[in-house]
Amino acid sequence: MALAANAHGRVCTFSSRPPTPFGSRSMVTMPGHHVESPRARFVVRAAAERATWLPGLDPPAYLDGTLPGDYGFDPLGLGEQPEDLKWYVQAELVHCRFAMAGVAGILGTDLIRVSGLGNLPVWFEAGATKFDFANTTALFFVQLLLMGFVETKRYMDFVSPGSQAKEGTFLGIEASLAGLQPGYPGGPLFNPMGLAKDIENANEVKLKEIKNGGWQWLLCLALLCKRL
Question: Binding site for chlorophyll a: residue ranges?
Fold first, then answer.
């Protein structure tokens, strides 16, 4: 505020504030009223639009929605550390695939049995079934060897992505295991239909796999409860 005297000896006051679009009046914000900027409204709207497992719950900062199927569900904080989060992502993916394979095996063998095409045991008695071509001990060690080899290769690809597609790492068929991300080897062996050629931008296909795997978890649980 500045003071000055005019020609008539009167003291005049001049405001140092620049004029407002409403003339000489200045806009005063009344107590209790908040003027929200468009940018703030956009941020609030964007945050509200993200789907979470519990509506109204703010997801953890490390679950920013970039992962397929990320709805902010981690009540125990297991994925708070980046390295742990990477491992749990792979664990969820593998469990989804095992669940899908398990449900297909249960329903497939039941269909073969009830249709009369084969005399296969029900799924909860399959472990006690004896086979003529090999005894149970031999089958156990063969399964242990084969699954151990596959799981070791998977872990090595997790530690060093793309390493299992290098020449000389797997009997000359390394090109069939080519992939750029752990858990998605790709190639003609694991992606024969070419549904996810660009795995970096295949979030929609990844999300479908996670959702289908989640449903198979529930179906496995339902089958187990029915048996009990």
Answer: 92, 95, 208-209, 212
